[in-house]
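name: query_chain
kind: protein
chains: 1
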Amino acid sequence: MVYGLPNISFIGWPVPVPCAAHAGLGFREARPADAPGMIAHLLALSPEDRRMRFCTAVNDGHVEHHVRSSWDRSGLVLAAHDGPLWSGPFHEPGPVRALAEFAVEGGDAELGISVDGALRRRGVGTYLVQTGARLLARRGVRRILAYTMSANTSFLVLARKAGASIETDGGEAFITFDVAELTRGYLRRRLAEQVFRAVPAAAAR
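structure:
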């Protein structure tokens, strides 16, 4: 299943050709064939952003092992592609620009998230988390848990706006998202998108 976030970027990777029919990052569930793109995304993070994502300094080998073992764990990985979501006769999938990784255990899911620096503060991370919550709710998940550094201000802002509970202990932060609240946010957003698209269409008639 595909989940769209309009008006962020372009289709036509590697040539940035604007396309009104597909203007934006595309979200979909990642699969093993996406591992190279996921690795490239994580390796492209700055050293500080990589440390925030993994809560410690990790080398390239650790990143590659982490990605390739993603499908050994019970969970869900959502990837945001810049451009085409799938390969075709004349193109490859666009590069991965953001990831939301959920490791599920019982009614809880542990979250790890990363977004390219150029796409932050545009709602990409929020939409990924909300979309993941929407899918995980169907699997009986009630809470999404995250552990990060207190200096990870982007993620903490996201969590506060989503109504999450945040506990700090020194340089660490423990975050608890309510899946039901995230799902409501997802549905409100989708409804707003549909209304936004319907109004210009009605006016054009």
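note: The mean pLDDT is 84.
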